[in-house]
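Sample 3 of the quickstart, ligand magnesium ion:
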Amino acid sequence: MTFYGYAMIQITNLQKTFNRGKANQVNAVNGIDLNINSGEFVVILGSNGSGKSTLLNLISGSIIPSAGTINIDGHDVTKLADYRRSKWIARVFQNPMSGTASELSILDNFRLAAIRTKTKGLNIGVTEAFRRNVKEKIAMLGMGLENKIEQPIGTLSGGQRQALTLLMSVMDECKILLLDEPTAALDPKSAEIVINIADKLTTEFRLTTILITHNLKDAYNYGTRVIQMGQGQILKDIDFEHKKKLKQTDLFEWFG
Ligand SMILES: Nc1ncnc2c1ncn2[C@@H]1O[C@H](COP(=O)(O)OP(=O)(O)OP(=O)(O)O)[C@@H](O)[C@H]1O
Ligand SMILES: [Mg+2]
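Result:
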């Protein structure tokens, strides 16, 4: 059964403390309650060290909370190892180099990604149908990369690579897309293209997306909801109705 788009993230009293009991103790996530409905595109803003990445790491399972619960689609995943949720959760990081294998071709990178997310059937990716599917999906990006699928991915620009990483990460049965400053290392034009692709993929694959950014313009132009974090807590939560009525200057006033 395919679950496209029916993810719902339910977070209750989530806490993550690092270095507990030591002088350098940090309550990185400090009592967060948050419900995210399927198909929402949530943009998270907040100053450095406010706990944004920690929250994403808790959702993906790369770290386990000190207290509280996380439910995905009604399943309690609070203590589930990350590789047991990775089938549903796609992540893209700041560094365009981190999501892919440089020396391998675009096509081989897609094969690897397919293998990673499939529970069975390692023969995935060697068929002509797979190749066609990859080319078709890459064409969707509108960057002309569908004609370069035999080229090592390391020869592409950071923006091209980040766009492919995004696409790769959502091609299988993923429901949730977690983006931690995916455009921070890109020039403004490439950043715009990549964020646009993230938006397109969210709609196309009916994903539930969380984007961390320091870019207020993106927070204004994209997403269905804006959350501000500060000191491990949610300071502001602006839903779709209110976001629609916002002016860009409001955001600058609040978050700038
Ligand atoms: N593994 C860790 N060990 C110890 N402290 C950590 C760890 N990870 C994060 N922290 C601390 O937790 C706090 C929140 O960090 P986090 O990375 O979540 O912030 P952020 O909002 O993503 O910041 P930025 O905008 O700079 O990326 C910071 O004080 C950070 O130093
Ligand atoms: Mg961060």
